[in-house]
Structures are given as C-alpha cells and as structure tokens.
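Comment thread on ticket #2218

A.B. wrote:
> Attaching the input chain for the structure job we discussed in standup.
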Amino acid sequence: MKQTEIKSKLKNILAEVTDIIGSVLVSVFVVTMIFTYILRVSAVKGESMENTLMPEEKVISTAAYFNPRVGDIVIIDADDAVLLDENGEPDIRSGLGKRIVKRIIAVAGQTVDIDFVRGAVYVDGEMLDEPYITGLTHIDEGAFSGSYPVTVPEGYVFVLGDNRAVSKDSRSSEVGFVSEDSIAGKVFFRIAPLNRFGFVTDGSDI
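C.D. wrote:
> Ran it. Output below, let me know if you need it in another format.
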C-alpha cells in the first residue's frame, strides 16, 4: 500500500473519530443543559405521598413551573409557612426549611373546607373525590384551626399529601399556604424503580 493511501486512510479515520467525539460532547452538553435548566431528578423522601409516590423512588420534575393547577404534584421549597393574621391577611413565618413534595388541592381564589370528623375535603363547597389518598383527612395540624373554610390568597396554593395520616402539608402551621414562587417544579415521570417506571398522573385514573 502506498504511503499516500495510508495517510489518506489515517486522515479519514481521524476525521471519523473527531466527529464521534464531537457528537458525544454535544450530546453530553445538551443533556447537562436539559437536566440543569429544564428537568430535575429527585429522590422521594418520607411516606407523605404514598401510594402515589413511594419512599426513595426517583422522579423527574420540571425545573420551572408557571401555571399551578389542581391535582398537580409539585416540589416545594418549604422555607416559609404562610398562615393568616387576625385580619385574614397572609402572615409569613419560618417553615420546614426543606424541600417537600405534595399535591395541589386548591389554587388562588378557591375556598377550602375540611370536615375532620368525616375526613372529607371540600373545595368551593364540593367534596373532593380523592381516589389517590391512603386514608381520610381526620388530622388537623393547627394551621387554620377554627378558621375553616379558608380562601387561598392570590399568589398561593393549598397542598395536601396523599397519605393524610403522616403528611406535613397546608394543614400544618409549619407549611400553611404555599407561595407559587416557592414551587420548584411539577413531578411528571418516575424513573425508578423499574417496575414503577412511567408517567406520574394526577390520580384521576387510579
């Protein structure tokens, strides 16, 4: 084989290797950007969202969230707890100081009432059909004791965990109303364990 042919083949191989390396680097960059600015992977801690989300499951959430909707499962930066003062205005206090995952039950302008004897939750006067919960809502954790029904202020949402017996949520004086600005993203996909791999729904199909 002539030296020119060898050089030509080596040049072609080098070009192919360079293209492959370039493609890999671009792919890694794109994936990194997606999981930095668009999507996030999180591990579920605790039992408050059973059986929808189980402890240590890995889920993907959006990295931005702009339009809260009833039924959405969201990740919240629970640094603040928002209760109501004597005039019925939002009163911001220190919260749990950690990230939590809960379900939006009501959005701004909606009225929430809870019958802790019956364990029923009402939004705008209608009892919710909640096939996703593991037990009824019997526990009042003190956020709005004696104040129900409460109307969700503008810019806030009311959240509950699906496992009402153990969930620390808007019923608690450590959470209260949740600011829309503190919602870090919406959970929409489960990646682990593999036997539960798939989209996380709003619970309407349970």
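A.B. wrote:
> Thanks. Noting for the ticket: Residues 3-37 form the longest helix (35 residues).
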